[in-house]
Amino acid sequence: MNLTSTPESSLTGSVSCPGDKSISQRVLMISSLINEPIKIKGFLDGEDPLSTMHALNQMGAEIEIHPKNVIQVKKSPTGFVEPIDPLDLGNSGTGLRLMLGMIAGLGIKTMFKGDRSLSQRPMNRVLNPLSAMGADITSDNGMLPIALNKSVLDDDFVYELPVASAQVKSCILLAGLAAEKTVTIIEPIQTRDHTERMLKNFGANITIAQKDSKNIICLAGKASLKAMDYQVVGDISSAAFLIVGALISQSEELEICGVGMNPSRIGILSVLRDMGARIEIKNAREESGEPIADLIVLPSKLSGVILDGSIIPNIIDEIPILSIAAAFAEGETIIRDAAELRVKESDRLKAISDGLLNLGISHINFDDGIKIKGNPRLLDLPGPVQIDSYDDHRIAMSFLIAGLNCNQPITVLECDNIFTSFPTFLELTASLGYEIKK
Ligand code: S3P
Question: Distance, CA 78 to ligand 1 centroid (Å)?
Answer without folding.
Answer: 31
